[in-house]
Amino acid sequence: MPRSEFDLISRYFNRKSFIREDVELGIGDDCALLSTEKKRRIAVSTDTLVSGVHFLPDIDPADLAYKAFMINLSDLAAMGAEPAWLSLALTLPRIDEPWLQTFSDMLFEQLEAYRMQLIGGDTTRGPLSLTLTIQGLLIEKGGLTRSGAKKGDGIYVTGTLGDSAAGLAILKNTVTISDEADKRFLIKRHLRPQARIFQGKALNGLAHSAIDISDGFISDLQHILNASQCGAHIELSQLPYSPALKTYSNHEQALRWALSGGEDYELCFTLSPQYSHILENLFQRCRGPEVFYTKVGEVVSDFSGKITFFRDGEPVSMKISNITGYDHFDTYRRE
Amino acid sequence: MPRSEFDLISRYFNRKSFIREDVELGIGDDCALLSTEKKRRIAVSTDTLVSGVHFLPDIDPADLAYKAFMINLSDLAAMGAEPAWLSLALTLPRIDEPWLQTFSDMLFEQLEAYRMQLIGGDTTRGPLSLTLTIQGLLIEKGGLTRSGAKKGDGIYVTGTLGDSAAGLAILKNTVTISDEADKRFLIKRHLRPQARIFQGKALNGLAHSAIDISDGFISDLQHILNASQCGAHIELSQLPYSPALKTYSNHEQALRWALSGGEDYELCFTLSPQYSHILENLFQRCRGPEVFYTKVGEVVSDFSGKITFFRDGEPVSMKISNITGYDHFDTYRRE
């Protein structure tokens, strides 16, 4: 069994080494935080996408550009940062001009939408892959880290869970959805996720912790719990499903997608109960499409980071090993 | 014929798009420059290295870590910036622990030597490749861009030229060097280049323009000339050769390596004659191993960016097409 990428990173790269005073937050959160002056810090995050590992080799270049950008942007959302700069390293097997045209058109469309600038990168020949390094700014307010969750916090997610995994299953022909509109919706949720950048900014200074759901709800929540040294109670009946997934006949599969499907790029955050009443107003004032949020559980005192599941208030036993998150070292890999 | 990476980048990514006020210098130089406050700016540069394209597939992981770091650091040197932060995206075909141990040991050794911090990155499975995004700081003084060369400037290079290309040819068994010490020296110059970070910092605020020699002396000088809208006179008899290359019997090959071999990671810079007398003193005060410099030509008025070659003061004709620089889309590629 391959180690997960988390083990790998922490084992080899999370060493005690030279510590710079201007690095406020290094490896281990959604972004690093670099301070350049008292009231302004830079949030930095890097993502690599490899053909056949993170996306299907025949992906439309517009979908690829869109998704690579959104995945990277989602890390800034989870930090509550204002998007600013992008570096793009693009490795291509050959120079395919229509491909590049479509790819770059979509990339620049997204950059403009978020008032961002491409500041550099590298272009090389090799097996198709992309590495994006995004940078955002945090002014005055603290940034949404993973380590601030407190006992009693509500656990919230934005939007709905599991749609992206369902869309991927449809694309891979491992499930069939008869309703055409539902099918299109789920595929779109997989190919065109939406980074919750405005919600992240709104939550900055208010939420105690946040993460974007890239690996799967449980897996990402676990990162918050481990970093915050807390446990969680999760109420399964509260998990937010889209109408398309709600009507899907295999409920157990839908639950698995919601808990561990990954690539939803919704935000999971924890918030003190005293602020729960202002959330609705806060989210309504966000720019961009309207996004709802759902309280799915509560942070509890548990040093070991354990998650306990409930259904309609009754504890249920779930094997965590059956619902572990998305592993970039496995998914999409062809036999 | 594939387009060179320069054409590719400028064609697809150097568009007029959203312009941020805090981006002082975007795509097209060694680093982007980002301003976060009046007197402090950030220099950013990204490099990708792909197995079989930028390095031999059986490279020692210590050599790979060293070289990837130095190539990326060299961009900061060419900007005169103080090294600060590194993001590393590592794509690996499998998890090979001894490989990772050796690779990360060398990376951290270099990070410590330059008082830098690894601030993040990504680890994914796929064909072996690395993308490094380095960031450095520029305080007060302007940064060494490519566009400031002026008529009358001396054209200088640090160290010696062509050694790295000779070392690569030895590794690829396309040339034979009988002297064992020379052979080892040339291979080392290829595998263990030295970014001229201290010299770059010393030149900041003094040199009119600078670039690091990654693609080949002529190719990189051409970038300065194009950006500065000047021409150059180059005196071939002044090109600095190492003792190992000076004694190599095929003088024409040695010249080709020096002009276009690439991967020397020396600095090429232009300097007003009024400052030439302080160069020696300036370089002697640099930290790190002693590095000499050589004046190899002069910037002349020529809007078209033409390079004219001389040997012992007499003009010689050289076909530029025969000496074009290192192309990342060709080198190392196996049949």
TrEMBL record, chains A, B:
UniProt: substrate binding residues: H54, E263, Y326
Molecular function via GO: ATP binding; magnesium ion binding; thiamine-phosphate kinase activity
EC number: 2.7.4.16
Reaction(s) the record says it catalyses: thiamine phosphate + ATP = thiamine diphosphate + ADP
Binding sites annotated in the UniProt record for ATP: G121, D122, R146, S214
Entry-linked NCBIfam families: PRK05731.1-1 (NF004350), thiL (TIGR01379)
Note, other: Reaction mechanism of ThiL seems to utilize a direct, inline transfer of the gamma-phosphate of ATP to TMP rather than a phosphorylated enzyme intermediate.
Name listed for the protein in its UniProt record: Thiamine-monophosphate kinase
Organism: Hamiltonella defensa subsp. Acyrthosiphon pisum (strain 5AT)
Encoding gene, per UniProt annotation: thiL
